[in-house]
Specification:
The chain is mostly loops. Helix content is 8%, strand content 5%. The longest helix has 11 residues, at 122-132. It is elongated.
């Protein structure tokens, strides 16, 4: 007897199987015949399916859910398994020559007693080992040679590009110069792992632990480090252009010479990070945490630092803030001057065409700084060291310069109403509001000694 189901006539035995009713003809064909060579099975739901001995050669199984499926002896030669879920699937005796397993989840996938003799390309053998038996790789580092598929001429050990290594414990392993482009390391343990010179563009490190990791000269364009831990990591000379570092912990990391142009650093922590020669241009840095030694020659050009608090940074000597938005920012007591003692005159920090309206630069050391065409209206420059600064065409309306030092400035097309009511007291500096200042105020407001306060600091060295 036929059964009425939702206005349609359904045969007995079909009731309660809505998933099967919605399956494509190709999926039904595969379930019924276990033959679907070259079929489009993209995103197919085949969890726990019985597919022993199935012919799936050249089939497109990208994104398919094959978790727990029985694929023993299946023909998957040249199959597309991109981003497929193969967790706990049984692939003993299956043929996967030249199959694309980029992004495939291989956690607890069963390839038999010896993965080395499985019908699986070497790079995916290694990916499986790294996910399931990383202790074997630690005991036998030569297993990493499985990824070498003849790319010596390219200068990279290729074969792991696109590997899904999420949730793996890969700490202290070495992947220097590996091609790991578009690989997934989300939630992985990568403490002190070495990625020197590795190709990691578009890779994912969300919530990964990279504390103490070595990423020097690594290519990390558009990589995603959201919520990752990078404390004391070495990112010197790394290319992080357009990378995502939202809420990443970069405290005490080395970013010497790193390129972070147009990176996302929302709520990232750069406390104690070494920033010498780093490029932090064209970035929204309003909610980024800065503290510690800072660095020389940092490029902040065109970045948004409005209302940011950098007052805990010791030095940003000769930094480039050209066309940056520093409106309302706290830049007090920072050494923007070069603290070197070689006697050579340096150009100083550049604030050309920057927006410094209402910024706090109190007691900052700004010798030789360039404020050409900068907007400084309402800025606080009390007690600042402004000797030899260039104010050409700057807007300095309502700027306060109480006891600031302003020796030999360049003020072409700029008006300063500097008035001293009486000679300066001993140890005081030239100011516009007279010299009625207490000794305690003078002591606490003095700019820091950029030669004495800055000590060599490298958090990577105990």
């Amino acid at each position: 007897m036929a059964i009425l189901c939702g206005g349609n006539i359904a045969a007995p035995g079909i009731v309660g199987q809505p998933v099967l009713a919605q399956e494509s003809s190709k999926v039904r064909q595969l379930r019924e015949t276990r033959v679907c060579r070259g079929c489009n099975l993209r995103d197919a739901r085949l969890r726990g399916a019985y597919l022993q001995g199935a012919n799936l050669q050249e089939a497109d199984l990208s994104g398919a859910d094959l978790r727990g499926a029985d694929l023993r002896g299946a023909n998957l030669v040249e199959a597309n398994l991109l981003n497929a879920d193969l967790r706990e699937a049984d692939l003993r005796g299956a043929h996967l020559e030249r199959a694309d397993l980029a992004g495939a989840n291989l956690a607890q996938t069963n390839f038999g007693d010896d993965i080395a003799v499985a019908y699986l390309d070497p790079q995916w053998q290694l990916a499986w080992r790294l996910v399931n038996t990383p202790e074997d790789v630690r005991e036998d580092p030569d297993l990493l040679a499985l990824a070498d598929v003849g790319a010596a001429d390219a200068g990279l050990i290729e074969g792991l590009a696109g590997a899904n290594l999420s949730h793996s414990d890969l700490s202290e392993l070495t992947f220097s110069n590996f091609d790991l482009t578009r690989s997934d390391f989300s939630n992985a343990k990568l403490s002190e792992t070495q990625f020197e010179g590795a190709a990691l563009d578009e890779s994912r490190f969300m919530a990964a632990d990279l504390s103490g990791a070595i990423l020097t000269a690594a290519q990390l364009r558009q990589a995603d480090f959201s919520f990752a831990t990078l404390t004391a990591a070495d990112l010197s000379d790394a290319n992080l252009e357009d990378a995502t570092l939202t809420t990443a912990d970069l405290s005490d990391a080395s970013l010497v010479g790193a390129n972070l142009r147009e990176a996302e650093l929302l709520q990232a922590d750069l406390s104690g990070a070494i920033l010498d020669e780093a490029v932090l241009a064209r970035i929204d840095l309003r909610q980024t945490t800065f503290a510690g030694p800072g660095g020389a020659n940092v490029d902040f050009s065109r970045s948004d630092l409005s209302r940011a608090d950098l007052s805990q940074v010791i030095s940003l000597a000769n930094a480039n803030f050209e066309q940056a938005n520093l409106e309302g920012a706290n830049l007090s007591r920072i050494c923007f001057a070069d603290g070197s003692t070689d006697g050579e005159e340096t150009p100083g920090a550049s604030f050309r065409r920057a927006n410094l309206m209402g910024a706090n630069l109190q007691s900052a050391v700004l010798e030789h700084a360039n404020f050409h065409q900068a907007l400084l209206s309402g800025a606080n420059l009390n007690y600042a060291d402004l000797d030899h600064t260039d104010w050409t065409q700057a807007n300095v309306e309502n700027v306060t310069l109480r006891l600031a030092s302003l020796e030999q400035p360049t003020i072409a097309d700029t008006t300063f109403d500097v008035v001293a009511e009486m000679p300066a007291p001993r140890g005081a500096r030239l100011g516009v509001n007279g010299w009625n200042v207490t000794a305690d105020e003078l002591r606490t407001a003095q700019p820091r000694d950029c030669f004495a306060d800055i000590e060599p600091h490298n958090p990577l060295v105990p």
